[in-house]
Amino acid sequence: MSLIAECFRRLTDGSSCKSELRGYKVTDVNRTRKIGIACRNFQDLKRKACSKLNIANNPTEVNIFLLDGSLIDEEYFHTLEPQTTLILQKPGEKVLSDADILYDALRRVNIDFLAAGDKVTQFLTENLKAKVALLNKVLNKDDSKTVLSTKDEHPEWFQDLETNCTTKEAYMHRRCQDRIRTYLYKTIEQIRGSDVYMNDHKARQQLLRTIAFFKVQLKEDHYFGYYFDRSRAKTGNSKDDNDETDSSRCYEHCPCNFSHISYETYLRQRYLRLPQSSDTSTTDVDSTKIDETDARRLVEAEKNANDKISCIYRVKPSGKQIAICDEKGEFKCEGRWNVDGCAYGDRHRINPYKSREELALFSTWNLDHKIERSRTLVPKILQLSRQGTINEQDIYDCYDNLFTVKNLRLVHIVCHDKGSHK
To answer: Where is the CIDE-N domain (predicted)?
Structure first.
């Protein structure tokens, strides 16, 4: 049977999607109810959760998030452990992470209840947000367990974490991938919701090719998980700093390990309609690795466009991957987007490898785009798509600005400017 016919059969034959039941905990954005769901796949989860939470929207309109605010898709869903707690978001709703809820709760309690007396009132009402920085100095001055790595060595660090990672480094690697993956999802969502994508046939083809490139290049770059992985910190010893990060040395959860196939073969199977090539480097491919959700969506897009999709951009080899922390795992705030360095100096530093409390506090730190994703970068991609074939260098520049530290800087919550970066 041909590859296209087999892929079409897998997409249309419901029996092929069946798998064993797995249990998850599901709640809404308000966290008012938590229910258990036994499901066989991502769509089954959405359908049952909408029914039990009395959500009238079509399940395809509902998004699924982790408690830390990470948006997940069907491919990522299959990597989650059973009993993971998930949040359903209806269109127009805002999802708050645990860190956001904790901060808001502390602020409400402190101001409304504890503000009794002139001194307390003055402390709590003046620059309360900045005082969060003091937690870094108050919490866990004992750093004797910072150097420990495995779950057996430091079990309390892993307490209540819904993960099968056995080392701190692996867990932090995945958390960074989650952040980069969220930027990808938000970029795709904004592109597909634009007038250009919906109304301009030729531009839509360019945008589909751009999305295809982003996904494959991110896989090549391991979704930049090593930004948070202290095992990749600079050591000062060039012999210890490898020039590249190949899949044989990467963690099990990394997409680079999902399938070892060439770029063109990967695209051909992922998007179903790329022409066959002379590439015979991989002949035995596990077809279950196909991202059926993306394939189904792209097939529909191609049907509407009445055109075939192909990626014309060359995927760059993954370069040296270096952490943005030191060998111990300590991160320093890089300051507001429009200044060089952090004005608070050593007061804005954190080591999530030290304790679970600092790990929780680290979730309030942001990878901030200096050139903004939603206001500048995505509109630029949309503009380029209307000018014909997008220049390869423009695609690389957009990719670097969206997903790499060329345009991302790690900042403390106080230094995160959510206003317009102009």
So the answer is: 20-97
Provide the token pair at 319. Answer: 């370069």
Give the model confidence (pLDDT) of 214-256 as tens digits. Answer: 999 999 999 999 999 999 998 765 455 444 555 557 888 888 7
Residue 301 pLDDT greater than 70, yes or no: no
Looking at CATH, the fold of the domain delimited by 18-89 is given as Ubiquitin-like (UB roll) (3.10.20)
Q: Are 163 and 81 in contact (CB under 8 A)?
A: yes
Q: Which residue has the tokens 């996904």?
A: 215
Question: 127: burial class by Cβ within 10 Å (0-12, 13-18, 19+)?
Answer: exposed
pLDDT score for 235: 74
Helix H or strand E encompassing 87? strand 85-89
CA dist 401 → 218, 377, 396, 405 (Å): 13, 8, 9, 8
CA distance 58 to 256: 33
CA distance 120 to 101: 23
Nearest alpha carbon to residue 155 among 145, 143, 170, 169: 145
Can you name the residues that pair with 89 across neighbouring β-strands? 63
DSSP string, 248-281: GGS-TTSGGGT----HHHHHHHHHS-SPP-S--S
The Cα–Cα gap between 266 and 228 comes to 27
H runs (alpha helix) in 64-115: 74-77, 98-109
Q: DSSP letter string over 145-161?
A: TTT--BTTT-GGGGTT-
Contact 267, 208 (CB under 8 A): no
Tokens of 368: 């901030």
Lowest mean pLDDT among 133-147, 182-196, 329-343, 385-399: 133-147
Q: Which residues of the chain are in CATH 3.10.20.10 domains? A: 18-89
368 — phi, psi (to 5°)? -95, 130
HSE, side-chain direction, 13 A CA sphere, residue 314: 5
pTM here is 0.62
pLDDT tens-digit map of 379-416: 999 999 998 788 999 999 999 999 999 999 999 988 98
Tens digits of residue pLDDT in 274-298: 333 333 333 333 333 333 444 444 4
**In whole angstroms, what is the distance from residue 406 CA to residue 417 CA?**
18
